[in-house]
Design brief:
Blueprint: H1 3-20, E1 35-36, E2 46-48, H2 50-58, H3 62-73, E3 79-85, E4 89-94, H4 96-109, E5 123-127, H5 139-157, E6 161-168, H6 173-189, H7 208-218, H8 227-253, E7 259-262, H9 263-268, H10 271-281, E8 285-288, E9 306-309, E10 320-321, H11 331-344, E11 349-355, H12 362-372, E12 378-384, E13 387-391, E14 394-395, H13 408-415, H14 417-423, E15 433-436, H15 448-469, H16 477-480, H17 491-501, H18 503-513, H19 517-539, H20 551-575
Parallel strand pairs: 5-6, 5-11, 6-7, 11-12, 13-15
Antiparallel strand pairs: 1-2, 2-4, 3-4, 8-9, 9-10, 13-14
Length: 584
């Protein structure tokens, strides 16, 4: 339960009662009324802007509305006080008994606490990674992979029906380059001295085994044939091998896509032609000449007739070409067909996770989706900035197996899957990220993944000690929900409950904004609050979690500790990170 949504409903109900009593005008629009945490915790637990947003349409002073509303809300058993602040904000302070009830909900909810029906089962397609099938995944791909996977998990927790999809770019010039690179390694496997890899081909050693496999299977069959006769075979063989390698790399990271869609399949299935015929029939494709680009003209620019999509009509800056000079379709044409295909498969909501170098492509693709779905589809593009791989503050390269980049697998092998996944989510996706192989393993509060995992492990340590102190006792969440929670009276204990009770709101807010990094920030704050309470118990024996001579108080505090483990585990589950019960 999102308690802030519940209190918003209570506030709207109170406004309705005031209107029925003739104290407010009937029919006021309450759509902009909010119930949120105050900016300053000292101001209370819930703040509403109701009086501020209704003042003008009601023709009344904000404070007058706020004071009437305060009297109504004070009657709620969960509200301890309602105070008007500033020009008309209303701050509510909730009774401790309300927070005990929230703690009971956490304990009974288990890992499902925070699950929401906000998404109402709406189908969402999250397409991420979609790296060209030309080699192993590198550390840059890891960020988009983790971000997309965590966003999908977050949307699922918020009640959406999510499909994880990978778009295989297997119809462009890059796969021909791949085929030629593999053919070179095939000749090498047959004994030919190939020397330095020619510029323009892929240099990585990861192609050596593939060349050897083809040589073993086919012998000299392809060696002396002209390119036209071997290119298709090497292209298909290489794509299959690279996609198998990519799937293995993603599995190492814990990423599993439900759907793989082939660009080549769209082209060969006639879906690109069909999509463009759809746009042509609506007058959205024409032959024209683009204006020259602003600034310095590129050397290869020439004013020539082109097949253009009316992108400006749908919010883009310029109309966009759909055909290359050789008459073949552009990538943009294939991407239009792909997004129409997603829409026709039942996905009105589409999220694409791209690298930052695709920033200039966003407007045209969003324009195309508006056009091709006739306004029925929506595309949100999330750009992931670069990852700077470091080691103890210095730029670092780990392997040359891939030729020019550090592989994802090397990094996972070095620090572990959970560390990679969590750290990739500690910055907003469009901010650059430094990934330091030394710092991500440090055991300090400056390392967020350690700090959060340590909170979970420390809480489990308390529970293990409780088992020794109170043997043959049920310490599950459901059992501890019946503890005497009213024994929790220290402000730090109530503050920790308040923070955990905010988890459902965090889920919904992060899902709505498509920002999984908010979960990382929340988990860090929760860990900090728990560590702070643990430290207080070390300094003040009366605040220790376990008090042998007071079983009732111990069980109340164990309820708090158990709840922390459940909420932290729930948050880590969104990230696909396994919580640790012990740390050495």
């Amino acid at each position: 339960m999102n308690l802030f949504k519940t209190f918003r409903d209570d506030i709207v109900a109170a406004l309705t009662r005031l209107a029925d009593a003739g104290r407010l005008p009937v029919g006021l629009d309450t759509a902009k009324v909010t119930a949120e945490p105050p900016r300053e915790t000292s101001h209370g637990d819930i703040s509403t802007n109701a009086a501020m947003v209704l003042s003008k349409p009601a023709g009344m002073k904000p404070r007058d509305i706020a004071e009437m509303l305060a009297e109504e809300l004070k009657a709620l058993p969960s509200v301890m006080s309602a105070e008007v602040a500033g020009p008309g904000f209303l701050n509510l302070r909730l009774a401790d008994s309300f927070w005990y009830g929230q703690l009971t909900d956490v304990l009974r909810g288990g890992l499902a606490y925070g699950d929401s029906t906000m998404g109402q089962g709406v189908k969402v397609n999250v397409e991420y990674v979609s790296a060209n099938p030309t080699g192993p995944m590198h550390i840059g791909h890891a960020r988009g992979a983790v971000f997309g996977d965590a966003l999908a998990g977050l949307l699922e927790k918020a009640g959406f029906d999510v499909t994880r999809e990978y778009y295989v770019n297997d119809a462009g010039a890059q796969v021909d380059v791949l085929a030629r690179s593999v053919h070179l390694r095939y000749r090498e496997a047959l004994g030919e001295v190939i020397g330095d890899i020619p510029e323009g081909l892929y240099p990585g050693d990861y192609l050596v085994p593939l060349g050897q496999a083809i040589a073993k299977a086919d012998g000299v069959k392809w060696r002396d044939l002209p390119e036209a006769e071997w290119l298709q075979h090497f292209r298909l063989t290489a794509i299959d091998a690279m996609m198998a390698l990519i799937r293995e790399d993603l599995e190492v990271l814990g990423v599993n896509h439900k759907t793989f869609t082939s660009e080549r399949g769209l082209v060969e299935g006639g879906k690109v032609d069909a999509a463009l015929e759809f746009l042509t029939a609506r007058g959205l494709i024409y032959e024209g000449v683009l204006e020259p680009p602003k600034g310095k003209l590129p050397d290869d620019w020439e004013p020539r007739p082109q097949t253009l999509f009316r992108a400006i009509q749908f919010g883009d800056d310029v109309d966009r070409p759909l055909k290359k000079s050789d008459g073949s379709w552009t990538y943009f044409a294939s991407d239009i067909a792909y997004h129409l295909d997603k829409y026709r498969r039942g996905f009105p909501q589409m999220i694409d996770v791209w690298g930052a170098d695709h920033g200039g492509y966003v407007k045209r693709m969003q324009a195309a989706v508006k056009a091709v779905t006739e306004g029925g589809g929506a595309l949100d593009v999330k750009l992931c900035q670069m990852v700077n791989l470091m080691k103890d503050g210095e730029p670092f390269k780990m392997s040359k197996r891939a030729g020019t980049f550090v592989t994802l697998r090397d990094v996972v092998d070095e620090v572990g899957r959970g560390v990679v996944r969590f750290i990739m989510l500690t910055r907003k996706n469009d901010a650059q990220l430094d990934f330091d192989l030394v710092k991500v393993l440090e055991q300090s509060r400056d390392n967020p993944v350690f700090y959060v995992q340590y909170a979970h492990a420390r809480a489990h340590s308390v529970i293990r000690h409780a088992v020794e102190m109170f043997p043959d006792t049920d310490l599950s969440g459901n059992a501890l929900a019946d503890a005497a929670l009213s024994r929790l009276t220290d402000p730090s204990e109530i503050a920790l409950i308040r923070l955990m009770a905010g988890w459902p709101r965090q889920v919904e807010g992060a899902a709505e904004a498509h920002e999984p990094h908010r979960v990382a920030f929340y988990l860090y704050d929760l860990a900090a609050a728990f560590h702070g309470l643990w430290n207080k118990g070390r300094d003040d024996v009366t605040l220790r979690f376990l008090v042998a001579e007071d079983k009732e108080l111990s069980f109340a505090r164990l309820a708090l500790v158990r709840a922390v483990t459940q909420v932290v585990a729930s948050g880590l589950a969104v990230f696909g990170v396994e919580p640790m019960e012990e740390m050495r």
